[in-house]
Amino acid sequence: MGECGRGFAETPNLDALAEEGVRFDRNYAASVPCTPSRAGLFSGKYPHAAGAWANNTRLEKGVETMGSYLREAGYRTAYIGKWHLDGDYFGTGEAAPGYDPEWWYDGQNYRDEVGEEFWEWYRSGMETRVAENDIDEIHERGITREDTWGGRITDRALEFIDDARGDDQPFFLVVSYDEPHEPSLCPPPFCDMYTDERYPLPDNYETIEELDDKPDRHRELAEEYAEGTHIINSLENAEEEGSIYRPLYFAASTFIDDEIGRVVDEIDSTHPDTVVTFTSDHGHYLGAHGIDLKHSPMYDEVTRVPLIMRGPSVAEDEVTDSLTGLVDLLPTYLEIAGADVPAELHGQSLLDTARDPSVDHREEVLLEYHSYGDSDFYPVRCLVTDDGYKFVVNLLDSDELYDLNEDPGEVSNEIGSEAYTEVRNDLHRRLLDLMDETDDNFADDAWADRAWRADAD
């Protein structure tokens, strides 16, 4: 992101949204990758309780999401874009419970519109494409905004907003873009914006030799990317060149910022009293710690995600470091709607902090991981605290502890440090308590019996 982030990609509309509202700088996903984090976002429950605990798994039957809750509160509810909570990345073309079928528009709906030939080109070769070739073909095919999933999502959203004009019934609208996720399709002029730019390796880029105190899985991931196992996402030669070449990824980021601007402009002109929120389900490593994409490591690059809120009674041009999580958004919307927040939700409304950014919100937030893609089962639980610690139990691997105040780049793993023994054991207790409080079905004695505990067998 632009002024809200590292300042590499241009995101003027999100920058403006942040200036008009509150930016939550310590907001955390519920999980990585997409599906489990979205489960936490839309259900208000941590993924282990929502059922969709790994990519392409389904929500457990009976688990309600934002649409159902807000429809019960008297709202029109529309969902437009990527869903990824019904077992399929692109969806089924059928509306999820709680959302108006007339306005449902997922990846399958987009596929039906553009046809198989275009779809196969759009989705093919994701791991073998060369960025320059992709950009050339975008021009050769004459790709326009209207050809992209992102562009059509926006068009649908604008139609819904117009349909709601003059309607006495309040509405809840989700506009869920897939981009900049690879293959990062975007039209000119956006696709050409970063062809001469290289993304500098972050300060916490670590070579494999520097990962001795990190879990085995982390080192394996770093080796894969250093060797170029994933071609489009490879870090091959990145260390030598000090940067990564990813022009379409950043181009798609700026393209979607422009699409968000179209939606916000329409909201402002027709429904100025609307609360507008921007967030993401997870981040992207882009070379941090010598890895790429998103995987089991719980570093901030993938777990700390943007959250911007703007609207009536929300503070303007403020930044808060109060700890928040994606599970908190559903309770927040229910409070805005004047509805009761069910006791079984794990999130808690952050509206007080949105109104007064000096108000502390949470003492701790839970993150989790189970598996991704074709990788094997690799369970992780992570606790982030408001006083700046991150504690990670990798159930089948070694564990981690980071002092984010002293080491914001999470380079030094303090799990075995005597200086952090008391802090570590307290965080361990708090994590186990939170797993118990949230009915974690994956919990057993192995989470407690860790090698670094003095009382371990």
Describe this structure in words.
The protein is an alpha+beta fold and 457 residues long. It has two domains: 12-363, Alkaline Phosphatase, subunit A; 379-457, 2-Layer Sandwich (Arylsulfatase, C-terminal domain), CATH 3.30.1120. It is 32% helix and 13% strand. It has helices spanning 12-20, 34-43, 47-50, 66-72, 107-114, 116-123, 131-141, 149-163, 216-226, 238-241, 247-270, 300-303, 329-336, 351-355, 421-437, and strands at residues 22-28, 76-81, 171-176, 199-200, 243-244, 276-279, 307-310, 318-325, 364-369, 380-385, 389-394, 400-403. Helix 8 (149-163) runs parallel beside helix 11 (247-270). The longest helix is centred in the middle third of the chain and has 24 residues, at 247-270. The model is unreliable at 229-233 (pLDDT under 50).
Number of domains: 2
Estimated radius of gyration: 22 Å
Mean pLDDT: 92
Give the beta-strand count: 12
Number of helices: 15
Which CATH architecture of the largest domain would you pick?
3-Layer(aba) Sandwich
Element-level helix/strand string: HEHHHEHHHHEEHHEHEHEEHHEEEEH
Q: Strand portion, in percent?
A: 5-15%
* CATH top level assignment of the largest domain: Alpha Beta
Helix content: 25-40%
Cα end-to-end separation:
47 Å
Unreliable segments of 5+ consecutive residues:
229-233
CATH topology value of the largest domain: Alkaline Phosphatase, subunit A
- The CATH homologous superfamily name of the largest domain equals Alkaline Phosphatase, subunit A
Q: What summary fits the major beta sheet?
A: 4 strands, mixed
Give me the secondary-structure category.
alpha+beta
Strand order of the largest sheet: 6-7-1-8
Overall shape: it is globular
